[in-house]
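Protein modeling request. Please complete all fields; requests missing the sequence field cannot be processed.
Requester role: graduate student
Desired output: 3D structure, token encoding
Chains: 1
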Amino acid sequence: MAQVDDKMILDLFRDEKTRNTSLSHLISKYQQRLYWHIRKIVINHDDSDDVLQNTFIKVWKGLENFKEESQLYTWVYRIATNEALTFLRQKQKKNTTSIHPIEYELSKNLESDNYFSGDEIQLKLQQAILTLPEKQRIVFNMRYYDETPYEEMSQILETSVGALKASYHIAAKKIEELLVGV
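Delivered output (182 residues):
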């Protein structure tokens, strides 16, 4: 399926006859990028698939009310981020038998994840990232791995550019300190 721009997706959505086609284009355009964005937050492949599906359901249900005050891309990413964070909070609440924080569980999942193909250094980096506070972890992943511009992150995370730069700097420093002992 040929990639179409966001304006075309929205135009197709507004016409009842082409509405379903817009969903196909939306999924085709964003599925892979959103999957990896979500995967960096929830770590587990199966959980990422579930969150991704919920994200597209929310986007589909909310698209009619999308006011185009932001780019479609940033709006969809904001929904994906919120869905991933909500998923982690619900998972933490359900897991009443563990005394460990969710980050510990995610780190253990990473070690046993059949879909994780990284080497030992990449595993240590991922585990170091999991020690960061939630917001710093998201900012670090978006900047370090996806090279997301601060202006786009600002729209997705609803945080000022200055705060994002500071958050990334602090996160990078913490990770560097953790990895020096590797």
